[in-house]
Structure formats: C-alpha cells, structure tokens
Amino acid sequence: MIELLTPTEMQRVDRLAIADGSPGIALMERAGAQVAEAILRHFAGARDVLVLCGSGNNGGDGFIAARHLAEAGMHVRVMSAVAREALAGDAALAAQAWSAPLERLSTDHGRPDLIVDALLGAGLRRDVAGPLAAVIDAVNTSGSPVVAVDLPSGIDGATGAIRGCAIQARQTVTFVRCKPGHFLLPGRELCGERLLFDIGISDATVDEIGAGTFANRPTLWQAHWPAIAHDRHKYDRGHVGVVTGGATATGAARLAIRGAFRTGAGLVTALAPAEAAFVLAPALEGPMLRIADTADDLQKLVAERKISAVVIGPGTGVGEGTRKNVLGILATDAAVVLDADALTSFEGEASLLLAALRQRPRPTVLTPHAGEFHRLFRGLLPDAGSKLDLCRHAARQANAVVLFKGADSVVAAPDGRASIADNAPPWLATAGAGDVLTGIIAGLLAQGMPAFEAASAAVWIHGKAAADFGPGLIAEDLPDQLPSILRSFVRPWRDDDPLRVD
Ligand SMILES: NC(=O)C1=CN([C@@H]2O[C@H](COP(=O)(O)OP(=O)(O)OC[C@H]3O[C@@H](n4cnc5c(N)ncnc54)[C@H](O)[C@@H]3O)[C@@H](O)[C@H]2O)[C@H](O)CC1
Ligand SMILES: [K+]
Fold it and tell me: What's the 4 CA to ligand 1 centre distance in angstroms?
C-alpha cells in the first residue's frame, strides 16, 4: 500500500479494474460509502451536513456519501455545480439515487456542522477561478470542518500544488492508494488527516501499472536493512570517513560522525586538515582521526584504510579546496555522500561535478536543501515542476541518488524510483540536523545498503528520531535517539545459549 499513484496512474488502475469486471458505478458506490463511514465514525455528533458536488466523478462520490449520511439520520443538503441533466456517466447514476432536491452551488452555506467537499478530485485540469473559487473561499472561511473526497478541491494530486485556490480540509478520504499530492507540500497540509480506503481494487491490478513513487515507510527499505551476525567484526560493518573543516569548523563533521557511528558503522574516521587535529583529537573517543590536507591524501587514506563510505561537505568550506577534494573522493571506490559546501562549491560549475558523477560506478547520494538544489542545478532542469519531478530529473542527470530535503523530503534514484517522506516534525528544522542525516546515510551505505534505500531509510529514521524526542530538539540529541529506533530493524541475530539444557 506504499505506492503513490498520480491521478493519471489512478485512472489507468480504474480502467483496468473496470475491464476486469468491476463496474465504475460499483467502485463509486464503495468510495461514497467509505466517505460516509469515515464521517459517521469521526464526526458522529454532526447533524447538519452540506455536501458540495462537482460535475465529475468526484461529485458522484459525493452524491453517494450524501445518501448514506441521510440514511444514517443526518440532515443532509446537496449543492451541485451542474443540473442533474448535465451530469454524465457514473456521476449521473449516483445522482439518480439521491432523490432529494439538488441546490445550485453557491457561497451561501450557512454554518453546517460539516461540509463534504466533492467538487474536484483527480480530474482537476486547470487553475480554479471564478464562481468555483468563490465557493472554495466561502467554505474556508465558514468555520465548518471539511471532509474532502479524494483530494481537497484545488490540490493537484500529482504535485501537491494549489491550483488557484484550494479547500483546507480537516480530513481527506482517499481510495486505493494515496497520491503524491497527499504527501507533497502544500497539498499535505491542506489534506488534514488522511484516510485511505480500499474500494475493491486488487493489489495485482495496482501492480500492473508499475508505480515508481512510494511513501517513505519502513516497508520500502526494510528488506535491505544490513544484517548483523556474530561472525562479523567491526571491519565487516563498514568504515565511514567524514571529511572535516578547519580548526574552527569541525562541529558539523562531528555531528555526521556521531550519526554514522550510532547507525552501526563498525569504524568511523575523521579525515581532517592538519590545522584541525588538536581541536578534533580531544573531541573524539571511538572515532579515529587521520590527517588529510589534499585530495591526494584523501584518496590514499580511503584506499589504505579501506573506507567504504565518505561524507564530504558539512563545514568543509565553499571553494576550490572542497571542489578538488570532492572530485578526488568521487574517483575512489567508496560510496559518497555530498552535502552542503560540497554541493555549493560547484555552483556555476555543475557540469564538472556531473561529469565526475556520470562516469562513477559507485553509489553516490547528494543531499541538497532547496537553496542548494536550485543553486547547483540552475539551468540544468526544467524551469517548472514539482519537487518530485525536479528531484527525479536531477537524479537522472547526476547518475546519483538525490535527496531533496525539506518537510516533505524526496529521494529519487537515477532509475526513476522516488520516495516522499511525511514524518519530519517542524522542530527538525534546526542547525546541524542535516549533518547528522549525512552520517546516518553514510553509516547505512558503509554497511552495504543500496543508495536509494539507504537515503530513504535515513530520512525516515531522522524524522522519527526528531518526532520521538519532541520540541526542544537540537541536532546533538538526534544520534542518541537512534538506538531505540534501530532496534526494531535489526534482523535476528542468534543469541541462544548453547549451555542451556531444557
Ligand atoms: N478508484 C478511484 O479512485 C475512484 C475514484 N472516483 C472518483 O472520481 C474522481 C475523478 O473523477 P473525474 O470525473 O475524473 O474528475 P473530477 O470529478 O475530479 O473533475 C472532473 C470535472 O471537473 C472539471 N474541472 C477540472 N478542473 C476544473 C477547474 N479548475 N475548475 C472547474 N472545473 C474543473 C472537468 O472539466 C470535469 O468536468 C476521483 O477523484 C474520485 O473521487 C470514482 O468514484 C471511482 C473510483
Ligand atoms: K474533493
């Protein structure tokens, strides 16, 4: 159930289900019944309900929900965007079963206990304007809670964008699979609570269309979680190298080091310029320290110390030095995480970085936030597009996994797969949190987790750590939250007692 289907993919699934013998009106009957069931469960005290129906099948779901709510004893009014005669197909059938009068859609709603928004769903084709926009504004200012059918009207299901204006829902009831627009901002915020219902379309039918976008949930990456076995020593559990900044800029790298160590890397080494050595040495206990002043030094250390994953960027400074170090590290066999200054150092020179990435056979993860993303890829990607589209393009262009950070972090792989996270609490936006994230990614890469799964897992774990900690979080708190989260992913290790006799 973690696939996210665009409205176009959802239409294909609907068509397949209908061709397989589930009539469209039967799907609509179930969808409308689920909306009513959700309302009866969550808004049991509502007496006066206003159902707003659009001209398409979203409206059809609304007519059916209205019937069920009335049968359950609620006082239901239905306003329709078009007259009965103008409805077609399944929506017309659904409206026939609503025998009470249809009111003409208007802004004169009164203040019902609940408004059901069945104006626009997957069929949104253009920006909402004119009288429909006035209705949406009136709903949003009415003070009545709103349950949206499939999507809040005005939200683009593929991108999460507000097309002109959109309903702010308390709850959104959707069917079969969630859509990217339920996960991407601002759509996610306007959905309120999201409820997903089955309407009788099988997983096999969904599988047929081969969705490539996923909700970032443990089921997406858990099968790739690194195994821990007794017969493994620390060298088998991967060795992370973290390139540090100079004497006054080692904090970011130390956060990454702690993230990598807590994630289970067997060894972690700070790769520091000589000037930082006396600052770093007393600040490291488990992690080791090696001096690297040049790209050559870094390359040698990666090979000699068998470093399996390298983080570069946090606190390393923007400029020629970091650029050279990045290109040097990309030429090694280590998996690489490029963050912060490692990305910004290629502003205006992205072609240099992309050329190195394209010929690189080893796993690479780029972790830009919005500013870094746009600085790096300016002019290389289409001007418009959702965060999801842009991230996918970037991953293809860079032949690398790209993690486009934010409250709705997207991870995309060059093969087109993408995940969208929705579990980061607002207080995760704090200085240094991104540095810890790079360490978690490197810790997983070093243990052999594939890059798309490692980046997606790290994003989820990072969000969960922040949510578990709660407000007041600072980046330094994140690594200590990891053990209780990681515990649930550890694949069984044998701890049977050979001396026990039962
Ligand atoms: N399996 C399922 O998910 C099912 C979903 N169902 C529901 O059907 C809708 C999609 O229905 P569709 O008829 O394709 O589209 P809409 O009802 O969302 O809208 C089409 C309607 O609206 C007009 N329109 C488009 N954009 C605008 C605009 N900006 N302003 C005004 N009017 C606009 C367009 O011209 C059409 O007339 C899906 O969301 C579910 O709710 C089914 O119940 C079956 C199962
Ligand atoms: K809707």
Answer: 18
Counting every residue written for the chain, the total comes to 502
Assign domain 218-489 to its CATH superfamily. Ribokinase (3.40.1190.20)
Pairing of strands 410-412, 418-420: antiparallel
At 339, is the pLDDT very low, low, confident or very high (cuts 50, 70, 90)?
very high
Contact 58, 175 (CB under 8 A): no
DSSP string, 221-290: HGGGPPP--TT--GGGG-EEEEE---TT--HHHHHHHHHHHHTT-SEEEEEE-GGGHHHHGGG-SSSEEE
Question: To which CATH superfamily is domain 7-211 assigned?
Answer: YjeF N-terminal domain (3.40.50.10260)
Pocket of ligand 1 (CB under 6 A): 10, 14, 24, 27-28, 31, 54-61, 120-128, 132, 149-150, 175-176, 199
* Ligand 1 nearest atom to the CA of residue 118, by list position: 41
* SS3 state of residue 109: coil
290 within 8 A of 270, measured Cβ to Cβ: yes
Tell how far the Cα of 90 is from the centroid of ligand 1, in angstroms.
Answer: 11
The ligand placed nearest to the CA atom of residue 187 is: 2
Question: Residue 117 pairs with which residues in a beta bridge?
Answer: 52, 148
Domain assignments of the chain as residue spans, ordered by start:
7-211, 218-489
Q: Is there a cis peptide before residue 186, judged by omega within 30 degrees of 0?
A: yes
pTM of model > 0.90: yes
Note the pLDDT tens digit of each residue in 150-174: 999 999 999 999 999 999 999 999 9
**Binding-site annotation: residue ranges:** 57-61, 117, 121-127, 150, 153, 252, 315, 369, 405-409, 434-435
In this prediction the ipTM stands at 0.97
Atom index in ligand 1 nearest the CA of residue 125 equals 26
Q: How confident is the model at residue 490 (pLDDT cuts 50, 70, 90)?
A: confident
What confidence tier does 499 reach under pLDDT thresholds 50, 70, 90? low
**Nearest CA, atom 11, ligand 1:** 57
For the CA of 89, the closest atom of ligand 1 is: 13
Q: At 168, give phi and psi (nearest 5°).
A: -95, 110
Q: What is the pLDDT of residues 367-387, one digit of tens each?
A: 999 999 999 998 888 877 899
Q: Record the tokens describing residue 486, joined without a space.
A: 């990681």
Helix (H, G, I), strand (E, B) or coil at 312: strand
HSE-CB at 197 with a 13 A cutoff on CA atoms is: 19
Are the C-beta atoms of 440 and 478 separated by less than 8 Å? no
